[in-house]
Specification:
Length: about 475
């Protein structure tokens, strides 16, 4: 009797989650803005993509832990979670349910009807449904990677024929859920198995044209290299990666080192115009270069720098990542990647995660769709290089200039409207703003940031029409 009652309750909760996600998701399906640079909600309001890489959410967390994780991200201002549907072809979830029959993407292991699977729980796909719908109740979009790239490029991996069947399965199953974004690929060059990636993208677009689609590429590359002109590619994203300046020795094209703003510059010039964002910068708590765990680890200051650099260059948002959280590392777990030690439920409170909301708040605090990158605001000889690089963006009546190390910012005034400007300092570490003063909006002027010149003493100079 107790087991039957529990089953009824769980089924009711699952049905409730679906109802909430379908009927009461106020943002609606994500759309591209009229100027093709940014995102909007269904009713045309500006949407700043603030993502988190919860890559193993579907496979590692049970329902209770998924609730804990998603609620934390909602409270911290995140509105997109990037998740792998299939981390591997033999993947099982927290309840022991396999995603596939015989590790074949063309044969998802789906339990008939809405009853419990053979393990005494819902099947793998019901669990995915549950988390997607739970995210919807919290106003969160799920950027779903159908199958991670390593499973396609490996010997005997996913082929075109099976990929077509699998993409059709996904499109039919999730096309009616409003909080889905498709993220094709998965840490792989588009040129590697390009026919499979084009097949997945095309099928998703044909069967589910109302959801946005992008491609998650290999580190130090961008989706626009291979897919910018594909009809199915709604927006671009790039992976600026985890190496530092000294480690980035490749001589290949499209290599910009840590200067992730250069990827945005490249995409920004392409036609047709499409939004772009950094979907995987260096993760907080991960070693420089990933593999040598004796090296220094990326910090909150670094993830802030990547955020402001890419967004001010014209990015439509930014995805944060954390070493322990992206793999949902658990205490005592063997085989942790990249030297992860902290438990995911502790690492969700690392400082960088809490600080990400401030860039979202800043960008939405002024007219959003009119914003453009504009380096002419900064005196050309004073723009700096590498960690000293200054970057600027503006609207009609405002301008923002970011410095990672503090110091003096020399600006050309008169780039925004009004006879006078009100200058302020915005602190990316706590979101506080301090007024500097009011000045004539002409000529050049130097503004000295508070504190000593050093890595992580970052500030945004705000110039508003007075």
């Amino acid at each position: 009797m107790y087991k039957k009652l529990s089953l009824i309750i769980v089924c009711a909760l699952a049905c409730l989650a679906f109802t909430l996600s379908s009927d009461n998701f106020p943002q609606g399906r994500l759309k591209i803005s009229a100027n093709k640079r940014y995102f909007t909600t269904a009713d045309g309001k500006p949407f700043f993509w603030l993502g988190d890489t919860g890559w193993l959410l579907f496979s590692k967390l049970n329902r209770e832990d998924a609730e804990k994780y998603l609620e934390d991200r909602r409270a911290k201002g995140f509105n997109v979670i990037q998740v792998m549907v299939l981390h591997s072809l033999g993947v099982v979830n927290a309840y022991g349910d396999s995603a596939l029959v015989h590790k074949n993407v063309a044969t998802p292991r789906v339990t008939e009807g809405s009853t419990f699977g053979e393990k005494g729980q819902y099947d793998y796909w019901d669990h995915v449904d549950y988390i997607v719908d739970l995210a919807a109740t919290k106003g969160i979009y799920i950027a779903m990677v159908p199958v991670w790239g390593s499973n396609v490029k490996m010997r005997g991996g996913v082929n075109q024929k099976d990929a077509k069947v699998y993409a059709e399965f996904l499109a039919v199953r999730y096309k009616n859920r409003p909080n889905i974004i498709w993220m094709n690929g998965g840490d792989v060059p588009g040129s590697d198995s390009i026919k499979v990636w084009k097949t997945i993208g095309s099928i998703l677009y044909q069967a589910d044209p109302s959801h946005l689609i992008t491609f998650h590429p290999r580190g130090r590359t961008q989706s626009s290299i291979w897919f910018h002109h594909e009809t199915w590619l709604s927006f671009n994203c790039f992976q600026s990666g985890h190496r530092d300046y000294k480690q980035d020795t490749s001589k290949k094209d499209f290599k910009y080192g840590e200067d992730n703003w250069k990827y945005v510059n490249s995409d920004y010039k392409k036609l047709p115009v499409k939004p772009t964002l950094d979907a995987e910068p260096s993760y907080e708590g991960i070693p420089h270069g990933l593999h040598d765990t004796t090296l220094a680890r990326w910090t909150a200051a670094d993830v802030r720098r990547y955020a402001y650099w890419s967004v001010f260059a014209g990015g439509c948002g930014y995805t944060y990542g954390n070493n322990s959280v992206m793999q949902m590392h658990k205490p005592g777990e063997k085989g942790a990647s990249y030297g992860a030690k902290a438990a995911w439920f502790d690492a969700i409170n690392d400082p960088g995660a809490s600080q990400m909301v401030y860039i979202k708040q800043l960008m939405l605090s002024r007219p959003y769709f009119e914003r453009v990158p504009d380096q002419s605001i900064i005196v050309a000889a004073k723009q700096g290089k590498k960690y000293n690089y200054l970057i600027a963006t503006r609207g009609k009546n405002y301008a923002f200039v970011y410095t990672y190390k503090g110091g003096t910012i020399n600006v050309n005034l008169g780039k925004t409207s009004g006879r006078q400007i009100k200058a302020s300092w915005f602190n990316p570490r706590n979101g506080e703003t301090k007024t500097i003063g009011t000045f004539a909006n002409l000529g050049t002027k130097a503004f000295k940031a508070p504190g000593a010149v050093k890595d992580g003493n970052d500030w945004v100079l705000i110039l508003d029409k007075a």
